[in-house]
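Note to self: the last two entries modelled the partners one at a time, which told us nothing about the interface. This time every component goes in together.
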Amino acid sequence: MSAGAGFPLGRLARMLEATLTAEPERVVTGVAPLDRAGPDDLGYVAGRRHLDAARASRAGAFIAPADLAGLAAPVLACRDPRRALATVLALFHPRVEAVAGRDPSACVADGARVDPTASIGALAVIEAGASIGPRARVGPLGYVGAGVALGEDTVLGPHVVIYSGCELGARVTVHAGAVIGCDGFGFIPGRGGPLKIPQVGRVIVEDDVEIGANTTIDRATLGDTVIGRGTKLDNLVHIGHNVEVGRRCLMAAQVGISGSCRIGDDVMLGGQVGIADHVEIGERALLAGGTSVARDVPAGQRSAGEWARPAGLAHRIWVAEGQLPDLLRTVKRLERRVAELEAEKARR
Amino acid sequence: MSAGAGFPLGRLARMLEATLTAEPERVVTGVAPLDRAGPDDLGYVAGRRHLDAARASRAGAFIAPADLAGLAAPVLACRDPRRALATVLALFHPRVEAVAGRDPSACVADGARVDPTASIGALAVIEAGASIGPRARVGPLGYVGAGVALGEDTVLGPHVVIYSGCELGARVTVHAGAVIGCDGFGFIPGRGGPLKIPQVGRVIVEDDVEIGANTTIDRATLGDTVIGRGTKLDNLVHIGHNVEVGRRCLMAAQVGISGSCRIGDDVMLGGQVGIADHVEIGERALLAGGTSVARDVPAGQRSAGEWARPAGLAHRIWVAEGQLPDLLRTVKRLERRVAELEAEKARR
Amino acid sequence: MSAGAGFPLGRLARMLEATLTAEPERVVTGVAPLDRAGPDDLGYVAGRRHLDAARASRAGAFIAPADLAGLAAPVLACRDPRRALATVLALFHPRVEAVAGRDPSACVADGARVDPTASIGALAVIEAGASIGPRARVGPLGYVGAGVALGEDTVLGPHVVIYSGCELGARVTVHAGAVIGCDGFGFIPGRGGPLKIPQVGRVIVEDDVEIGANTTIDRATLGDTVIGRGTKLDNLVHIGHNVEVGRRCLMAAQVGISGSCRIGDDVMLGGQVGIADHVEIGERALLAGGTSVARDVPAGQRSAGEWARPAGLAHRIWVAEGQLPDLLRTVKRLERRVAELEAEKARR
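The predicted structure of the combined assembly is written out below.
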């Protein structure tokens, strides 16, 4: 797991604002899983649940929470070990700079503008009028449609498809197989079969967005489908036409958002969440995995369950449901008992 | 949003069978979102919910429902504005005819029959025995397997995969990344691990079908998986082996249909609907988004919720569930009260 | 449906350990659906539900359960007809051997090791340091990243993406559009927007695994995401980072497994099952389609429904829920009746 260059623990401690328990001169060259780490590796201890594994580990040092004691090797004690892990991983695995230029096997249309510092992968197709910004990369076998704009440092993985006219900002990452700008699902049912509403809008992906593998984002019927700055989508997510997603949202895998929804800033959606069309999700709302939503969700609310209720209520209902078969029997018995009391009263 | 050619309002009124409130000679050149439309654009007003935006719009004219008054610019008053929108969008954005012929970078097998009016995109692969009909298009980086037949005017987006032996009719549209004809999921559990049942059937896609991005349709074990004429599938839909989908169905994104299901004509499935294997959905049935179905659904029924119930009942149950924690407490109290009455009776 | 070579029924009976009712010399050349089979075809009768179709069939012979009588043509009576079907399909449709070698249009990096018996499809891209084993196949338009290892007889369909450093064992099958080794979804929410945790681990796919079309498997943050030997994943499945899937599991389409889950051996997951992160599913557990799981599931348990309960209980609750609106009314009535009895008691 090491990537060559080494860092002394003392220097890492300063970078991470961590307290180092010993051996500031000791050099580590990478991060490794606890059960595989050797004396040159950092081990990562998220919390107590990793303590046994950490004690058995041969790691040369640990990133660990500040309150965790009893490890055999030096510890970089951190307030937020996960954030520290992110920092050291970025340190040991710096972004590999792509070779600027076009692979000779790529098909780049005459009318495309490709920045000389950009990189076009093997067998990629770039259509006329596309514009590829500084240090942007189009992966092998990727497709960039007519008039598409990619901002600086934006990276498309292999097999990504960007349909014509869509715009991606700076530092956007798109993973393999994602499709941006396909037609929205707009049909009018009718006797002769569904009538297609032409989809002539675009998709706008703002800066610093990340889009997972095989995710699909539909172009708007008119106007724009928008993914706000800093938002991250996992794999196999679907975003319908004319959806407006706010900034810094996180959506886990297989989330589906129907047409014309508005998702506020900082919303978090668990895996497989489904949202019906024209629904508005307020900022900072959090929907647990598997929740399906057909009505607006207020800002800041945590929701869960079928047709999204406040999460606490959803959980109480779920627990209560477990008693429902018994409850039915209890109520039947109660009816009989009350009937007997009533009969007795009538006899008096 | 304009596409060049302009149309006078009077002519549009005749085409749309709409009532025009003023200025039949005024020319518009496109359709634009209300907040971006200028004096050359049509604005689209779906109903009252768009009224404020329409009043603030600089659009030169509006498509609007017949009963909507009080707009500053001429109105094309329509019985069905959404249908009118579809018509004008098709008018202002006519299908761009592809250039006939094979991109020189495409790999077309010697034994493939490609109609001279068909278009084969850059870096597409066409295997032997495939047959590409008049004016059909294979998108860039597409794959058309051995013996596949594409009907006239059928359009495959970039990165589409059609496995060997499948047949697509006329005017079929397949969006990027869709996979048609992959193996059905047929395994027999056993001690030595799951045993694969070879999948040797085909997929038949009838005329006028549309298939969304990254959707997958499995070939049959034996015989055919069928998608009926005029049916439209959204993105990331899964259709299992030997499924027979009827005509004019609409399936929203992330629907999953297990093997050997039969879906009747004109069925509508909301997003993320899941249907267990061998289930039959009667014609014109409508399943709300997120519904999971393990039993047959009768023709015409609207269903919703976990294990699909009639939608009205599903909604009443959902409301009742909200009272369930209170109900448990009420029944416990009732038990105590009845026990007291019984005790009193025993004392008498 | 026939593939040329014919087999006499007597020989098939010996291979299938089936009892043949007549005509051991009769030769059949394929298997066909009951309604299309001709006198040279075998028809497949899974059970009683196929009996009418079998009686109307022109098939020359049948594979059928041992207790099924009354068919007009000879019957290969089998204890497990589905297993017999798998055997004869494999017999009539033997694996087509690919032509060894590299398609001249493929882009194979100098530093890649490709076994001379392996087959590299048209327009595939193989990066440096990749190793392609004996008789392995990379499909047309496939992408094999730097340092990837493919074992012997492993087959990648068209458009498959394997990111750098991942390892696939022997006899693995990956269907079109699947993406293996994309980044895990690791972000730390924070004021400046989500902070990405670099994903530097790998995906290990063990021998005899099958992976469906457009399925995505994330690489580990550190260490490995593992798919155990003999496991089969259907289409559009998502496997998160650091997940460890056991051996011989079956996962139907659109299953989603969040990061760091452990799935035991022989687990079966129905379509659209969703599992929250860090959950452990015990071996031989079975989750019905559509189940969402947020807690550990013990070994051998059959579970169903929202937040996974034992399947029997889930079904009883579902039935009870149907009576819930009535129950609410009954309890309201009971409260009034008890109040009356109490009032009467107070009057005494």
